[in-house]
Write a structure and sequence with these properties.
21 strands; three-stranded antiparallel beta sheet; 14 helices; alpha+beta
Length: 556
C-alpha cells in the first residue's frame, strides 16, 4: 500500500518500507479502501487545504495511479474508520460550490490527457459525499529533488533542452481556460525519460489567500496577486514559471513576492554570469510585481526567451551576451576593412552597376550592348581598374564579364522579398491559435494525421525549420494532429445519455445507442457498453470501431 508493488511476504515492504502497522491519519481514507468498484486506495502521499492525495491501484488497467480526494478540512470532516464525509452544516452551499469547481477542473484536464507534459487525469467520479480525480502515477522525482541532485542549478544549455515542451504545454493549458497558480519546483516532475511533467492543479481558492479554505502557496513562486484580492490570469503563471527558471539557473530561490520591493530582486545574470543577458532580462520581465508591466502570456514569454539575441542598439531592448557582442564587433571591424578596400577600387564598379541596373529587365542581357561596351570601358580605365592587375592591364573583357555577373546578382536580389522574419518553432502549438497569431506573416498549409503523441489540433512538424529567417508570406507546410488513433473508453457510471454521448464525441468515438427496459438504473442513464471501461477503442477513420451504448428505459 506504500508503493503498489506486488508483495507476497510478511513484514515491511522491501521497496518502500511501508508496513500495515504504520499509523494513519484518521480523517483520511484508510489504505485498501475500494473506490468506484475499480480503484484501491494506498498510502496518503500529501494533503492541503483542498484535499488529500493518495497512491492507488487501478484494477481495470492493472497499473499504479494517483487518487485526489476533495476534502477541505475547514468545511468538512471524516470520523475515524469511516469513508463518508460529513459537511459542516453552515458550509454546505460553499462545499458544493468548491466541489463542483474541483470536478470541472479535472474534467477539463481529462480533455488534455493527450499532452505528454502534464499529469494526465483519467477519471472523475463522486462517492462518499465528495469527488475524486484519478490521475496517472508519474515515475520520477520533483524538479526540487532533481536540482538538489544536480548541484543546485542547471546551465542555460540544459534549460533549452528541458523546458520548451512544458512551456508549450502550459500555453495550450491556458488556451483551454485553465490557470495553474502553483507552478514551482515541487509541482514539476522530472520523469525517468528526462521529461518535465506539470502536476498539482488546484481550484482557485486553494491557491489564493483570504478564502474559506486553507491555501497552499509556494513561497517565492506565487505571484503577488495571489496574496491579495486581485484577478489571476495567464500572467500569474508567467510569474511562477519565471521564478522557477530563476531558481533553476541561479540555484537561488527568489524572495517571496509580498516581501519584495521595486529593485530588490537581483537580476539572474548578477548571480550567475554565464546566464545570457537577454534570458536574464526576460525572466525579470516575467517577475514584475505590477501585473500591467509583467509579460502577459506564455506565448510572449517563450517568443522573447528563445528569440535570437539582438544588438544593443536595436529597439527591442534585448541585448547580446558579452561573448556574442565581441564576436559581432570583430565581424564589424573585418567588414569595415573590406569596405575601405572596395571603396578604393570600386568607384568605377559602382557607376557601372548603376548603369547596368537601369537597363536590367529581369534578364542579364543589356538592351544596348554597344553603349555599355564603350561606356563601361571608359569608366573602368578612368577608375584605375587596369592598375589592379599587372598582367591584364590592357584587356578588360574578362573583368567586365565577372563584374557584370556580380552586379546583376546584386541588382536582382534587391527586387526579391527581404528575408527578415523569424520562423518560430510550431511543434506542440495549437494550429488554430498559430494561424490567428502568425497568419499575417506566413501561409500555413496543413495536413491532418492521427497521432498518439499529440492532442487534436496540435502541430508536430513543419517544412521550414524553426529559427530560419524568411520573407513575409512564406508558405509553411505543417502536420496537424487529428488526435490519437485509439483512446480509452471513458467511465459511464452515474452519467446520463446526453453527458456520456458528449464525452464520446469529444474523443471522436463512434457510437450507437440501444435502449433497454431496466428498473435498477434511472431512466435515461447509461447501463453499460459493449466494451469495458478503459478498453481501447480505435477512432481512426479507416478502421474506426463503433461502441454500443445501452441506456436505461423505465417509467421513472
Amino acid at each position: 500500500m506504500g508503493c503498489m508493488n506486488e508483495k507476497d511476504y510478511e513484514g515491511p515492504c522491501k521497496f518502500c518500507g511501508y508496513s500495515d502497522d504504520d499509523l494513519c491519519i484518521p480523517t483520511y481514507l484508510l489504505p485498501k479502501t475500494f473506490l468506484n468498484e475499480r480503484y484501491i486506495v494506498g498510502k496518503l502521499i500529501s494533503y492541503n487545504g483542498e484535499g488529500a492525495t493518495y497512491i492507488g491501484y487501478d484494477t481495470a488497467a492493472n497499473n499504479k495511479i494517483t487518487i485526489k480526494e476533495f476534502m477541505p478540512d475547514t468545511l468538512c470532516t471524516r470520523q475515524k474508520n469511516e469513508t463518508e464525509i460529513t459537511v459542516n452544516a453552515d458550509n454546505s452551499a460553499l462545499y458544493k460550490t468548491y466541489m463542483s469547481e474541483f470536478a470541472d477542473l479535472h474534467r477539463s484536464l481529462i480533455k488534455l490527457r493527450g499532452m505528454a507534459h502534464i499529469q494526465s487525469v483519467i477519471d472523475v467520479f463522486y462517492e462518499n459525499g465528495t469527488c475524486y480525480a484519478v490521475s496517472e502515477f508519474i515515475n520520477g522525482i520533483t524538479l526540487k529533488t532533481y536540482l538538489e541532485n544536480s548541484g543546485g542549478s542547471l546551465s542555460w544549455e540544459q534549460v533549452k533542452e528541458l523546458f520548451p515542451p512544458i512551456l508549450t504545454t502550459l500555453s495550450l493549458i491556458h488556451a483551454g481556460g485553465i490557470i495553474h497558480r502553483g507552478i514551482s519546483p515541487q509541482t514539476i516532475f522530472v520523469t525517468d525519460k528526462m521529461e518535465l511533467k506539470l502536476s498539482g492543479f488546484s481550484i482557485s481558492a486553494g491557491r489564493t489567500t483570504n478564502t474559506e479554505i486553507a491555501c497552499e502557496i509556494f513561497s517565492g513562486y506565487a505571484a503577488p496577486e495571489q496574496y491579495a484580492n486581485e484577478v489571476n490570469g495567464t500572467w500569474t503563471d508567467v510569474y511562477g514559471i519565471s521564478a522557477v527558471l530563476y531558481k533553476v539557473l541561479t540555484g537561488t530561490a527568489p524572495p517571496e513576492a509580498i516581501a519584495r520591493t521595486s529593485g530588490s530582486l537581483l537580476e539572474p545574470m548578477m548571480i550567475n554570469r554565464n546566464i545570457p543577458s537577454n534570458v536574464s532580462k526576460v525572466i525579470m520581465g516575467g517577475m514584475r510585481l505590477a501585473t500591467d508591466k509583467r509579460i502577459r502570456s506564455i506565448t510572449e514569454f517563450v517568443d522573447r526567451l528563445f528569440a535570437p539575441p539582438k544588438y544593443e542598439g536595436e529597439s527591442s531592448g534585448i541585448v547580446m551576451s558579452r561573448k556574442e557582442e565581441r564576436k559581432l564587433e570583430k565581424k564589424e571591424k573585418e567588414r569595415m576593412k573590406t569596405l575601405v578596400a572596395l571603396i578604393l577600387v570600386g568607384a568605377g564598379l559602382i557607376l557601372f552597376a548603376l548603369a547596368f541596373a537601369l537597363t536590367l529587365s529581369g534578364v542579364c542581357t543589356p538592351s544596348n550592348p554597344s553603349n555599355i561596351n564603350s561606356g563601361s570601358s571608359q569608366h573602368f580605365s578612368s577608375s584605375g581598374f587596369g592598375a589592379s592587375s599587372s598582367t591584364e592591364s590592357s584587356d578588360n573583357t574578362e573583368s567586365s564579364d565577372n563584374e557584370s555577373s556580380s552586379d546583376n546578382e546584386s541588382s536582382s536580389s534587391d527586387s526579391e522579398p527581404v528575408a527578415d522574419t523569424y520562423v518560430p518553432d510550431f511543434t506542440d502549438a495549437i494550429y488554430e491559435l498559430a494561424v490567428q497569431r502568425y497568419g499575417g506573416m506566413f501561409v500555413f498549409i496543413p495536413t491532418y494525421y492521427y497521432s498518439d503523441e499529440y492532442a487534436a489540433g496540435v502541430m508536430y512538424d513543419q517544412s521550414v525549420e524553426a529559427g530560419t529567417m524568411v520573407a513575409k508570406g512564406q508558405q509553411i507546410k505543417v502536420k496537424v494532429s487529428k488526435g490519437p488513433s485509439a483512446v480509452s473508453l471513458p467511465s459511464y457510471i452515474g452519467k446520463s445519455e446526453a453527458e456520456y454521448i458528449r464525452e464520446l464525441e469529444k474523443l471522436n468515438i463512434k457510437y450507437e445507442v440501444e435502449y433497454e427496459f431496466n428498473w435498477s438504473v434511472e431512466d435515461g442513464y447509461v447501463l453499460g457498453c459493449d466494451k469495458e471501461i478503459g478498453d481501447t477503442v480505435i477512432v481512426e477513420t479507416e478502421r474506426a470501431e463503433t461502441v454500443t451504448v445501452y441506456v436505461a428505459y423505465n417509467y421513472y
